[in-house]
Amino acid sequence: MLFYSFFKSLVGKDVVVELKNDLSPGDTRSAHATGLWENVFSYLEDVDKGIQEHSESYLSICGTLHSVDQYLNIKLTDISVTDPEKYPHMLSVKNCFIRGSVVRYVQLPADEVDTQLLQDAARKEALQQKQ
Amino acid sequence: MSDSEQPETETAVSQPQWPENGGQWSDEEGGAGMDECGLAEMAEEDEEIDIYNNETFGMEVVDTEGDPTNPLFQFGEKPPALPALPSLSPSSPPFSPRARPQLRVQGPPGRRGRGQRGGQAMAQMFEDPAVVRTVEGRPSLQVITIARSIVSTCREMLFSSYVGVSCNGDVLFTQVGGLPSPRPCPSTPQPLTPKMMQLRFGANSPRPSPFYSPSSNRVQRFRFPGPVTQLHPQHRRLLSQRQQRSQRKPDSWDPYCNLMSAKEKEWIIRLQMIQLQSENPHLDDYYYQEYYRRMEAKLAEEELGMRGKREPPKLTTPYVTKMDSYTPVVHIEGSLGQVAVSTCFSPRRAINAVAAHCPHEELKDIRQQRLDVLKKIEKVKYSKWHLQGVEAEEEFLPCLLVSKGKQLLARLLPFLSHDAALKVLSMVTSHLPVLMSRDSDESLPVLYPSLRIVIGGMTFSQLIGVLKDFTASLPDSSDGSVCLSLVCQSKFGLSLLYALLSQGERLLSSDVPLEPSIGDFETWTDTVFLVASQLSQSALVEPLLLPSNLLTLFCRYLDKRTIHQLKSNMESATGYLALPS
């Protein structure tokens, strides 16, 4: 429950959520997440060329954290996309729900995080898990 | 959800024969086998739906023919389908065993775009029944009908959801409002599907928990996560502050809101939140609780600094008053609860019973008042009797066991005649052990002032008589000093003793003729010796008043050693010098 607790404390703060873009052949959910066929094809091109990582093609959504649940699904309100030209379909979207499993990164405001407390919480969690 | 819906649509799809090539698909009106009227009707609906889609998603996507990069196609398919999808030429092989239709749309660009989108969407729709998209373009009537039925079914299923467009479930793009109200499809006029009924079941669920506070303000840009979510008060304050700060112009009315009733929303939210309940929130939710507790403390500190030095809140342990358990007034050993004691016909029995069994309790309320009344009557009776010279000593004692009785007696004493008062005094001294042992609330000292006055008026003989009681042995004890040792432990008793001795000394040292009876002096000296030895041996309590002539008395009778011992003992009890020697 550590991450849930942590994210709960960030409700109401502005975050940037970067989504996964892994397109391993068996993983199509992420492909749906980004949804861009061009991504798919460019990835495939890279695969042909032997490039492992496909950079700079991740969808990042900036918004206010509205809520979070135990699966770390995130609801963002008042969102804006970092690269609207690349992801124009998001222009009209105001709120979104992001499945937790496709989140790669969540960029947080640094002053809203108490790292010391986080460490304490992590230790507590580890202790609990041991028991 | 999508999984459960898939079989439904698949059955619908399996019936028609999907053409292998896209040539069957035509966007020309009056195509083979089409009913013109029905088609026109559906086309109208299509347009309306398209308008909605455009408004929702904003963009008029103009695609070139066969352009696979239409961004509106979020919904990828299974891997085998993926590579094949972009090639929309009629000659391309089908994607999947289900023979996806190949769409080739010709017409005006705008329409083409829509058609293409629609066609592709339709293609995908059967893969993903959760998609709400309508078919644009001019496929055959049969296809249209099937498509429409599926669409309307999907729509109705999603009627209660918050979702505008959904995919396989990874990313849902929502509008604040949601779907438009479903139009009745001409081909399949369906009432509520069972699925929808299930969804509606949520509305019949029990009311939300008491801390629900519905947020009815649609104007807010940021809404609270939900009525069932419990936020730390500090967190809540922060959020509301933010809302106040970022007050923008109110949004225009959203025509697609309120598709779900508040109850339904609560129900769904509660479903989730129930899983998050924990017995030990401080441990499970440690970071959140601690974070906001610290923030609160910090803010409080800052506030303190701003308002000047204020006393920091003391960490007080709240004193929990023990609930008064019912204690029966009259209790007999081995019995349960209160014993019924008749008070109407035999008040004395009630009083005695109470006094005998509950000596330590202060009688309260009605019982107390009742007893008071009784005692007052008793006192009046007693004084009347005493004026008449009737002995009523035995009746007096129970009164004295109650503190109120003692107070009353103390008030009564000055009004009694000297003889009556003496009788009272002798009674007190003779029953002193009983009185002392039962004086749990230490209310005996109230008698002291009045008795002292009485003592002050005593003659020597009377004094001796009273003093005898002090040295008298208890009925069950042969040791005469038991009483004295008890007296030493009692403030009242000791003070009374001192008062008596002081009076005796005063009488002896005065010039007033004593008129002693025979044996009085011996008794006096004996008493003094006894008292002195007892006082020097036992630990003394602090008396109510230490008469100044006591040590003088002792000096006359006792040796120096005993006097020193006595003096130190008395001084240690009182804390100051008994007498400047």
Automatic annotation (TrEMBL), chain A:
GO molecular function: RNA binding
Residue ranges constituting the Sm domain according to the UniProt record: 39-108
UniProt-annotated location(s): Nucleus
TM region positions: none
Keywords linked to the UniProt accession: mRNA processing, mRNA splicing, Nucleus, Ribonucleoprotein, RNA-binding, Spliceosome
Major location category of this protein: nucleus
InterPro entries (UniProt xref): LSM_dom_sf (IPR010920), Sm_dom_euk/arc (IPR001163), U6_snRNA_Lsm2 (IPR016654)
GO biological process: mRNA splicing, via spliceosome
GO CC annotation: catalytic step 2 spliceosome; Lsm1-7-Pat1 complex; P-body; precatalytic spliceosome; U4/U6 x U5 tri-snRNP complex; U6 snRNP
SUPFAM superfamilies: Sm-like ribonucleoproteins (SSF50182)
SMART domains listed in its UniProt record: Sm
CDD domains noted in UniProt: LSm2
Alphabetical list of PANTHER family matching this protein: SNRNP CORE PROTEIN FAMILY MEMBER, U6 SNRNA-ASSOCIATED SM-LIKE PROTEIN LSM2
Function: Binds specifically to the 3'-terminal U-tract of U6 snRNA.
Family assignment from sequence similarity: Belongs to the snRNP Sm proteins family.
Name of the featured protein: U6 snRNA-associated Sm-like protein LSm2
TrEMBL record, chain B:
A GO MF term: RNA binding
Biased composition (Polar residues): 9-18
Gene Ontology annotations for the cellular component aspect, listed alphabetically: P-body
Single biological process term from Gene Ontology: deadenylation-dependent decapping of nuclear-transcribed mRNA
Record region (Disordered): 1-49, 64-117, 233-255
Bias-annotated ranges (Low complexity): 97-109
Organism superkingdom: Eukaryota
Segments passing through the bilayer: none
InterPro entries: Pat1-like
UniProt name for this protein: mRNA decay factor PAT1 domain-containing protein
Organism: Oncorhynchus tshawytscha
Lineage per the UniProt record: Eukaryota, Metazoa, Chordata, Craniata, Vertebrata
